[in-house]
Amino acid sequence: MRKFLFLFLLILLSCAPKVKKCPPGDYVLSLMEKPPERVKLYGYAKALFIRFPFLVSKEGKKEVVKTPENRLTFTDSLFCMNDFCFELPFTPSQVIYGYFPGRYKLVMCSEYGVYESEKGLKIYVKNRRIEKVVYGNVEILYGEKAPAGYFKEIDVSLRDGVIKIYVEGIML
């Protein structure tokens, strides 16, 4: 009888659903790669039917995004498009590299691990990879990551529109 009870408990426990465990808040920092102090990245952005090239130049703390005819400007944390400007809590290189330093806590553990900073920035992690960042009305979706550490494809949603960013490479 004891053998039967032991076997029954063993089968019952093996069929129990597995509890998914997410790493603690500081884990999300290990997934981030800090942008280099000096870098120039080039690519193009698409908004509605417009496609335009850009150059991101970073030297120390100064960052500038250059586009033809200045359709899109992003200096440090001020983002402007078609005469509308947004003050963002991050810089262009932080968006491109997916680097958002801060103190995070785990707020949800399901399909994604969701980590939230003290400033309200939420980072969604799936399979040891940053998938999405949300801050207020801004949502950033990340695609493929290049070996050099930057993301090649980024979708930035701002209120009514989406800007697709394609980073093609680094200028030396």
Task: Summarize it.
With 172 residues, the chain is mostly beta strands. Helices cover 13% and strands 47% of the residues. The longest helix is centred in the first third of the chain and has 13 residues.
* Sheet with the most strands: spatial strand order: 6-5-4-3-2-1-13-12-11-10-9-8-7
CATH fold type: outer membrane lipoprotein receptor (LolB), chain A
Task: Return the CATH class.
Answer: Mainly Beta
- In helices, the fraction of residues equals 10-25%
Low-pLDDT windows of residues = 4-10
Largest sheet: 13 strands, antiparallel
Q: What sort of overall outline do the alpha carbons produce when their principal axes are compared?
A: globular
Detail the topology: elements first, then pairings.
Blueprint: H1 2-14, H2 27-30, E1 38-47, E2 50-59, E3 62-66, E4 72-75, E5 78-81, E6 84-87, H3 92-97, E7 104-109, E8 113-117, E9 122-125, E10 130-135, E11 138-142, E12 153-158, E13 161-171
Antiparallel strand pairs: 1-2, 1-13, 2-3, 3-4, 4-5, 5-6, 7-8, 8-9, 9-10, 10-11, 11-12, 12-13
